[in-house]
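#onboarding

Welcome to the new folks! Below is a worked example of what a typical request in this channel looks like: someone posts a single protein sequence, and someone else replies with the predicted structure as tokens. Don't worry about understanding the tokens yet, we'll cover that in week two.

Example request:
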Amino acid sequence: MPEPPAAEPARRVEVVGGRRLSYLDFGGAGRPLLALHGHFGEGRTFARLARELAPKWRVIAPDQRGHGRSDRAADFSREGYVADAAALLGRLGLEDVVVVGHSLGGVNAYQLAARHPRLVRALVVEDIGAVVDDDLSFCLAWPERAPTRSALVEALGDSARYLTDAIREYPDGWGLAFRPEDMVASQRRLNGDHWDDWLAGDCPALLVHGTSSDVLGADHAREMADRRPGTRLVHLPAGHTVHETVPERYAAVVREFLAPLR
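Example response:
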């Protein structure tokens, strides 16, 4: 099936807490949908989903703190990420929105729903649990700069295929659109038991699990769906980045979930 026509998002910036928070607004007259990426990512990872959901849904996809074109922050706390998302919606005059989140963004999404329920109409959580325990310290071995793009890709090894959007050319060479030490710090603050936040919200939720994921296990995903009313669980043949591995199937289940919400 051919891809739908490309949407041309507008790149915009809000200043939140003295920091630049950059985001993509895919526009249109559809209902707003906030899309939150995972570690190492940025808002444009949801470009394909935005095209698939247009024109019924207007996707707004920020580069979260320390990622992409947004500024670094003094901390990468749970409170900080949630405050950024709430502030962006406030600046845009939006509430009662659907929030989609992958990995880090998934926890941010359901914590936003728990702490600011009027802002969130429904959740789509992609491949992250109510208990998180991971270690990103491997990324500290990645080079800060390389003389060419190909040299950086070679140094990144197998990880390069997950980092295409984050590769940048700087005045002093080629590097990534984040600092690895920030990602390690962010993951450490993400780790923990978040059952209270997952169970606090009562809005409809779609939990998408990659059957080959090394982050979210099938048993834990089933427990999350069983314990939280109004939660639908879908298993798709992918690893952790479901939206990139099987984009058409991912978009189809999201679109089906969203249909009655319009």
